[in-house]
Design a protein that fits this description.
Butyryl-CoA Dehydrogenase, subunit A, domain 3, Butyryl-Coa Dehydrogenase, subunit A, domain 1, alpha/beta, 17 helices, globular
């Protein structure tokens, strides 16, 4: 699985940087004609409808918020229009999520999950035609709310380290897969009725014709016998649904995304599709929150006085604010640049990992400086504290889609060298193959 992770995805400007020859004209030209006005009216309407309060817990979340998100097309921004989806450019998705995040972070997280790594993304790339035609229209209109069960008590950033097992068995003469589930930290799990399940398939009795095994991904509806969605997490009072998926279930082989032919290809599928969450959703939320925080603190500096002077004129405060502004600008420009790369059709795994790690870390720096400047008002919860909702959600962006510590060490440096350096991976491959001549 480590080799698959290191080899997955494509390259872009990162390889050109290694070569020392970057074609800037090719990279920047499309910015002049890019349109960012898709869904502006709908975005403002949904924000006015939902407001700034945390959207969860809320017993009417299906009827009130999720239905509205589905009707407006915010749950299907990655689904093709032929499945009644509302497929948008990466730039437009990013802008919408940034705006959501600046106003209501809990709404942003709830919206990004159906548009990131999960049932819709995996179905479009690997699903059978029957699976696509049945599930995608329901995901598009919000009648099916997806989540993706990958992590558990013993597999976090090492997602397949000690993953749930699925054993091929015979039940009444029919081939079934018995899966014992113990998933944790699954966003939208408490309200989801279509669940993607990652598990390690084993066929000890050789019942499958193709004799395949390994990490696989299946779709399970909430009506599945034996499935439990009874226990919940509270992610730092950030206000979005999160919980566990448990139970022992028996599924058919046609519930595997892509059918039996895709058995054992789950890790490759996940790695190839991870760019959306890492490269789009999380940087977009960092972008929106940092802009809001920097803008509000800038206004606060103009009205708050101490020692008979505006605190904005104090050099120590200026130093922190300038650092906030710098980091916000870096996030903004890098998000625009990466969106352009992704919209051009490239899927650079290392660049998206850099974006995830750098934007979430820099947005945390922006937030911490803002807390220092807002001082006592920043640590007292209340309606006038505009930082609390961002402070609660900041550690989540650092942690999800691969903890930043792992992302920096394994993906950025490890995968970065393997993907972009002209010689390192061939050397490694020749050692693996014991190919002395090529080595």
């Amino acid at each position: 699985t480590e080799i698959i992770a290191l080899k997955s995805g494509g390259v872009s400007i990162d390889r050109e940087i290694f070569k020392g020859k970057v074609n800037y004209s090719k990279l920047y030209k499309p910015f002049l004609i890019r349109k960012y006005d898709e869904m502006n009216i709908e975005t403002n309407e949904i924000l006015n409808d939902v407001g700034t309060e945390n959207i969860y817990p809320n017993k009417n979340i299906h009827k009130s918020i999720m239905k509205k998100l589905g009707n407006y097309g915010f749950l299907s921004m990655i689904i093709d229009k032929k499945y009644n989806g509302n497929r948008l450019s990466i730039a437009s998705q990013s802008k919408i999520l940034s705006k959501f995040s600046s106003y209501n972070p809990s709404l942003a997280v709830t919206t990004m999950v159906p548009n990131s790594l999960g049932p819709a993304e995996l179905l479009q790339h690997y699903g059978t035609e029957e699976q696509k035609n049945y599930f995608l229209p329901k995901l598009a209109n919000g009648s099916m709310i997806p989540c993706f069960g990958l992590t558990g008590p013993n597999n976090g950033s090492d997602a397949v380290g000690d993953i749930d097992k699925g054993i091929v068995v015979l039940v009444d003469g029919k081939i079934k897969i018995k899966i014992t589930l113990n998933k944790r930290y699954i966003t939208l799990a408490p309200i989801s009725n279509l669940i993607g399940i990652a598990f390690k398939l084993e066929d000890p009795d050789g019942l499958l014709i193709n004799k395949k095994s390994g990490i696989s991904v299946a779709l399970v509806e909430s009506s599945q016998e034996g499935l439990l969605q009874n226990t919940y997490h509270n992610p730092n009072n950030a206000g979005f649904p999160n919980g566990t998926i448990k139970g022992t279930i028996y599924i058919d082989t046609n519930q595997i995304i892509g059918g039996e032919n895709k058995i054992g290809e789950g890790w490759k599928m996940l790695m190839e599709c991870l760019a959306v969450g890492r490269g789009v959703s999380l940087p977009a939320t960092a972008n929106g929150s940092s802009k809001f925080i920097t803008h509000t603190i800038m206004n606060y500096l103009m009205i708050r006085k101490q020692f008979n002077m505006n605190i904005g004129n104090m050099e120590a405060v200026k130093e922190k604010f300038i650092d906030m502004y710098l980091n916000t600008w870096i996030i903004h420009t890098s998000v625009n640049f990466t969106n352009h790369i992704l919209d051009s059709g490239s899927t650079p795994s290392v660049i998206t990992a850099i974006m995830k790690q750098q934007t979430t870390e820099r947005s945390r720096t922006v937030l911490n400086h803002a807390m220092d400047i807002y001082s006592g008002s920043g640590i007292c919860i209340g309606k006038n504290n505009f930082l609390t909702k961002f402070y609660n959600s900041s550690p989540i962006g650092i942690t999800v889609e691969g903890s930043n510590t792992l992302t920096r060490g394994l993906i950025i440096f490890g995968q970065g060298l393997n993907k972009s350096h002209p010689y390192i991976f061939p050397i490694f491959q020749n050692i693996q193959d014991n190919n002395i001549n090529e080595f």
